[in-house]
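For consistency, the fold was encoded as tokens, as this record shows:
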Amino acid sequence: MTKVYHLNLEKKQIQKARLALMPGDPFRVPKIAEEIRNIYGGEIQPLAWKREYQTYLCQFDAHKLLVTSTGIGGPSTSIAIEELALLGVDTFLRVGTTGAIQKQVEIGDVIITSGSVRLDGASTHYAPIQYPALAHHEVVNALVEAARSQKIPYHVGVTASADTFYPGQERYDSYTGYVIRDFQGSLQEWQKLGVLNYEMETAAMFTMAGVMGLRAGCVAGVIVNRAGRENITAADLQLGEHNAVRAAAAAVDLLLKAGKTSKKAKKAE
């Protein structure tokens, strides 16, 4: 098999790794890989970096996993998932940061997404809008157990997953200061409906995983709560990132030791 185009990877490079941690920012990839090494030992190896996609291979005990960045939003995330799936990856765990919208959520807490409101366009290229964007229960369970074991405060629930950072999340501090009518009042509506937070990737990720017979989940560290304020401090960003990575790293151990794969991967064997 030749290299997949965007990730610039070929099958032999990933050494049969089936699980990928997926931050948005390529500069977080080596940080997450180093955290995996600090916790479990083993080796880490940079494999490729093309555009927004950087990939590291982590190896510890008999386990192998990838850390691959997705870039921001559903379209670039969909490319990463398609190409990793072609290489044999069947479990995808997004690790990111997020803005909470419910008052009870604190800075540094993690949000484990059980399902996403599909406010994007990429997911509609895989399934009609009526199709639910759901995290896989095994990944959710592993993240919950991981957060508990690390004593990280966590919340499980629904995320609003938008294509845009400004109008789609009803932010008015943009160039025009204008939000189209479809999104005016949407923040308050999602709050009333119990949605926990906003982010930009899980609608595509979960929809794709569902229709492709793969597993996906997401843990995001809270770096701002928009129920109170909009500004993000450096300390809040560091805390949210750190706790999300800790929870994801602990969940990796649970998922790899369980040795489970998606239905499609089992058939391929």
User: Anything to note?
Assistant: Confidence is low (pLDDT under 50) at residues 265-269. The chain has one domain: 11-257.
